[in-house]
Amino acid sequence: MCVKGLWFVLFGLAATGVLRVSGIRIYTSGDVEAVNGTDVRLKCTFQSSATINPDLVIISWTFRPLKGGREESLFHYQQKAYPPTEGIFRKKIHWAGDVMGGDASIRIQEVKFIYNGTYICQVKNPPDVHGPVGQIQLRVVLSASFSELLVLVSAIGGAIAAVVFVLIIIASCRRCKKRQRQRQMEDSEEAPRKERKDPTVCHPSRAIHLYLSETSVEIDSSDGMISDPSTKDSSSSEDEGPSSDDDDDDDDDSD
User: Fold this and answer.
1) 216 to each of 51, 161, 224, how far by Cα in Å?
2) Taking CA 66 as the corner, what is the angle to CA 61 and CA 72, rounded to the nearest 5 degrees?
3) Quick one: fold of 19-143?
4) Rg of the chain (C-alpha set)
5) DSSP bridge partners of 64
6) Are 25 and 124 in contact (CB under 8 A)?
7) How far apart are CA 156 and CA 163, in angstroms?
8) Does 249 score more than 70 pLDDT?
9) Hey, which residues does 103 pair with through a beta bridge?
10) Given a cut of 60, is residue 200 above it in pLDDT?
11) From CA 140, how far away is CA 113, in angstroms rounded?
12) What membrane topology does the annotation report for this chain (predicted)?
């Protein structure tokens, strides 16, 4: 009865989260498809209940062929990367992870059909050394599937659209700047024109006022010349009139 009661207590604590079991949690990308002759990244990330110590972390990758057979060591990491020095993966495996970032990924260069199989990722971070392993199924094909082609076309189309959009914005900005420069040039040309005045018009403050006497000024309409002012008045003309007549009468009497 005491043993059963203890088990019930432990089960209850574990269910409520009070009692937590330490262990490494590993996450992988699952099934991966790669075109023959291309590079592929096998993604493997991990989380540890203990603080990550880069000097103690151990990462191991193993490979199990698709047609069956024994597992072979593929890659090892402990303070630094140890790629395979022999076998079909020689000079083909490269480190692509970050220990402090919880990344244990690797990259396979120029995949071949013989690379089809299961890739197993295992991480240890002492004292956190227990936990499940991560598995990735790699399938090497002649050409990309329709879904991958669609994703690739979408990515290329999005990149082209982004470039075109940027070019349109740049062209619009240049047009706006060109129009502003033209307007500024037009305004600078119109400003002096507005300030120009008729040189024949005299400024009121500089005008010379001419005062004419009561003498009349005659203007000959034929040639536009101004004749001498006449100083004779009406009374003088009337006085001269009779004198001329008298002279005429005298001449007649003498005759």
Assistant:
1) 120, 89, 16
2) 35
3) Immunoglobulin-like (2.60.40)
4) 56
5) 118
6) no
7) 11
8) no
9) 45, 98
10) no
11) 5
12) Single-pass type I membrane protein
Bond from prior residue into 204 cis (ω within 30 degrees of 0): no
* Token pair for 15: 């269910």
The Cα 95–Cα 119 span in angstroms is: 15
Whether the link from the prior residue into 127 is cis, omega within 30° of 0, is: yes
Number of Cβ within 10 Å of residue 140's Cβ equals 21
Confidence category of residue 159, pLDDT binned at 50, 70, 90: confident
| Cα dihedral: 6, 9, 10, 13 (round 10) | -170
Residue type at 65 in one-letter notation: P
Using CA atoms, how far apart are residues 142 and 112, in angstroms rounded to an integer?
Answer: 10
214: confidence class by pLDDT, cuts 50, 70, 90: very low
Cβ-contact 74, 51 below 8 angstroms = no
Domain residue ranges of the chain, discontinuous segments joined by +: 19-143, 144-192
